[in-house]
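step 4 of 6: structure.
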Amino acid sequence: MTRTVSVLSAASALPGPTVDNATLGRRLGMDRLWEQWVDAFIGTRTRHLAVDLDSGEIRHTLADLAHQAGSRALDAAGVTPEEVDLVVLGTATPDRLMPTTATVVADRLGIDGVPAYQLQSGCSGAVQALAVTRSLLLGGTARTALVLGGDVVARFYDLTADLRKLPPAEFVNYVLFGDGVGAAVLRVGEVAGAAALRSAFTRLVGLGREPGATLEWFGPTEDRNRPAATEDYKAIERHVPDLAAEVVEELLGELGWARDDLDYVLPPQLSGRMTALIVERLKLPQATEVSCVAETGNNGNGIVFLQLERALARLAGGQRALGVSIESSKWIKSGFALEGL
Amino acid sequence: MSTLRSVHDFVTLVRDELGLPIEESDLDRHLDDVAGWDSVHLLALCSALERATGRSISLPAVLTADSLGGIYATAVDR
């Protein structure tokens, strides 16, 4: 039985134009001080949003973006929809509770008669999807999988909110996140020119811990007694760098790889500034960092695929890469390892 | 017209605007040691100082301060 799963391609879809901090600040009624603060403490310069800031209209659904990303990934892999015998999608923000976005996307792509799983997941969702897919492929359930992940957080933007009156745990969400979806095509066996997915794991480490981030089913404009989205950024700053370092150690130990063997590292994408701090903590100076959060914002379930897309374009035969994602909701650490074929 | 005329006014502003229960004795404390302080408070405090003083404040300049007292000095000594 084969022990190798190859990543044939990765692709992404980001909605609308690039939204910089000045544009977002103007729309939210924030001033020059706010922009300077975002530069200094968040370090995210731009993002894409599914909502049109001028009209407030939501112009892209998760299924729209997943359809685009999935099509691009299939094209890049040279794989037809008929060849796909497994679909897995991770998201925290499905368009509807039913039908799942996974099944809607499969339908739009012309994929049918196969398992289509959807994971309800946060920032570790892409790795969860990769890990589940890898297990199913290695177990013989399928041969060729389309794996997707992404989020549309736009409906959690209350463009009428007075940001100055929001508590910090809600306030930061307006600058951290962006909308986007990514996808990858995985196939059983070693495929020349692709990347072997040598490992992919996720582990819940939230026993007795308060959630670091929450997201409700309802949006911020609905009249409820609790906020629609919160971020305990202090807990995140405290725990994520250590958890990320643990993931690196675990992957290296499992694979018998040395730190010097690493050519690339795909670190957690919280914000431009937090990611820089995490990279410092990982102590992998010889590995080239593959990050995009400063330009795309944190895309939740999507951003690992955006990193994967960038990494695959550079990963040569024999080169090695590690990816790390930490989900602060109920605290999940996750990681994966790639090797160029 | 500035409503920020003394250190006492500044302490009141921090307490009222940020909800942090500080005393004058906290002003020389390093920001990391001020209970409840974080970077989001810095933004709220600078905005409140702009309103109170009627002056524009440069956040990069404020970032050189490592205590609430230092921030106060930056806001009033221009």
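step 5 of 6: annotate
 - The interface with chain B takes residues 31, 33-34, 36-37, 40-41, 164, 168, 171-172, 233-234 of chain A (CB under 8 Å).
 - Chain A has two domains: 5-188, 195-340.
step 6 of 6: archive
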